[in-house]
Automatic annotation (TrEMBL):
This is Chaperone protein HtpG. One of its GO terms (molecular function) is ATP hydrolysis activity. It is found in: Cytoplasm. Residues 553-625 are annotated as: C. The lineage of its organism: Bacteria, Bacillati, Bacillota, Bacilli, Bacillales. Its main location: cytoplasm. Pfam families: HATPase_c_3 (PF13589), HSP90 (PF00183). Homodimer. Residues 24-177 form the Histidine kinase/HSP90-like ATPase domain. GO terms for cellular component: cytoplasm. SUPFAM superfamilies: ATPase domain of HSP90 chaperone/DNA topoisomerase II/histidine kinase (SSF55874), HSP90 C-terminal domain (SSF110942), Ribosomal protein S5 domain 2-like (SSF54211). Keywords: ATP-binding, Chaperone, Cytoplasm, Nucleotide-binding, Stress response. ATP binds at residues 31, 35, 77, 82, 90, 96-98, 117-122, 167, 341. Gene3D superfamilies: 3.30.230.80, 3.40.50.11260, Heat shock protein 90, C-terminal domain, Histidine kinase-like ATPase, C-terminal domain.
Amino acid sequence: MAKKQFKAESKRLLEMMINSIYTQREIFLRELISNASDAIDKIYYKALTDDNLTFNKEDYYVKITADKASRTLTITDTGIGMTKEDLENNLGVIAKSGSLAFKSENEAKDGHNIIGQFGVGFYSAFMVADVVTVTSRALGSDEAFKWESEGAEGYTLTPAEKESIGTEIVLKIKENTEDDQYDEYLEEYRLRAIVKKYSDFIRYPIKMDVKTQRPKEDAENEFEEVQEEQTINSMVPIWRKNKGELTDADYENFYNEKRYGFDKPLKHIHVKADGAVVYNAILFIPENTPFDYYTKEYEKGLELYSNGVLIMDKCGDLLPDYFSFVKGMVDSEDLSLNISREMLQHDRQLTLIAKNIKNKVKGALQSMLKDERENYEKFFESFGRGLKFGVYNDYGMNKEDLQDLLLFTSSQEKKLVSLDEYVSRMPEDQKYIYYASGDSIDRIEKLPQTEMVLDKGYEILYFTDDVDEFAIKMLMKYKEKEFKSVSSGDLGIDSEADKQENEAEESDNKELFEAMGGLLAGKVKSVKASKRLKSHPVCLSTEGDVSIEMEKILKAMPNGQDIQADKVLEINTNHEVFTSLKALQGDQDKLKLYTNLLYNQALLIEGLPIADPVEFTNDICKIMV
């Protein structure tokens, strides 16, 4: 019979589909199995309305057979089959799907859903095969037909012999090349792995002849290798089971089987949504941080299924960045698939699912924080930094979602506390949420700036992550309480009497402070009497939005932003050092020496580098002589 041309604009369309649409060759098997499943579903639909047709599920399956000698891979199904016209219309017209038309006629019957909707997946077979042969006999027909093609040049359609109803697809696997090894698609282990990855939850058995060992009948402790037919897919996915049927161990086993992590998940979330969008999901909150979690190489995302068929390994659009630690899967029949199952439309359904998942994860974390505090603190130790970055990122757009999930070490009992816990136990006279920043809790506790706040009996939050202060600046306030650094120029603690006393100190020592400020011009904005120091002689405070810790972090970045905090040198006027300072007003050399020493001392307290360490040690020697 003469070869027929494909009814498409050009053979280039087929070439594009074969070479460009799919990112991995192995998905050809997923597509052919999905088509076979569709063919069985169509019989099921027919049986619902045809009293003469009974559907015994045990009679329906998909069979995979590999023959290395002939280099053929055969996929057989016991589905509805295709007539000559079906073969002509469905396989002869690229991007036309019989499944899509069938679905529109039999919408939503008894929960069975047609997977293949766009008629393109079949042609993925040409990625691995030189010749594709389809032999099919339709339900209710005595005739069978064979469709055969070598690719874009066209196809032939001839009568054939086939005893049973259904379709048989034979792929003549390509020969190996220097760059590509096609032999793998004839190997049992590889075929099983592909089925497990993409088609494990197809609702019908996927069978294959598998090599196995069994004891010899006539010899003890001896085994022989035999081939036996096995079902190699699970068929019923865990997410379609009722939650009441499942135990924590079931979820943990699923977590381990899918290799979501090597740890034990802290919590699982099983979602069955039947609202504006229908989907099932199983989500996990891990305990441990993946080794690459805080690197650019880490790829977020959930496994995405359409009716039990894996579409994407990691669909990043389903998770916001700040919840990128979540592992798991989503299965939906509502997703719009464009051309192939790998090209997902960014449509309303996907947006709705993503929004719902975000809320489910947030709710689960809030529940952990309230009822499983130990587990939540384990989680926060691993992933809390990402939540803080989520508050800071996108100009604070997500701060309302995340603020109640944050924990910080507190000066009280050195335990982690939430912002809600902090605010709930604030004394009535406390105006601000106070915090102190530093490299470690030990260093923060030694900061002179904390003295006055602690003396008032106020709690301090310790910020040790580099993102902490940036996140809080973006948050600005919590439950109408503003955040204030203990290094801030005005702590909002002073009484009227304290303010008057300080103003008097400033006035009495105005000349001395101005002289010291002149000696430190360009290094500090001013020198003034300290309201916060009790036992320490000196410290640095800041004015404006940039703190000293923020300056250090910004300077440490790869591009090294030269942003300076507006520093103020504060002097404790009740310290013995200040008495010595006052006695030096007539001696400019010694005043300069003492001023530089105090300034460098304040830098060291803050963990800032000294501009000239040699000069600093020489200045110390001058004092010692």
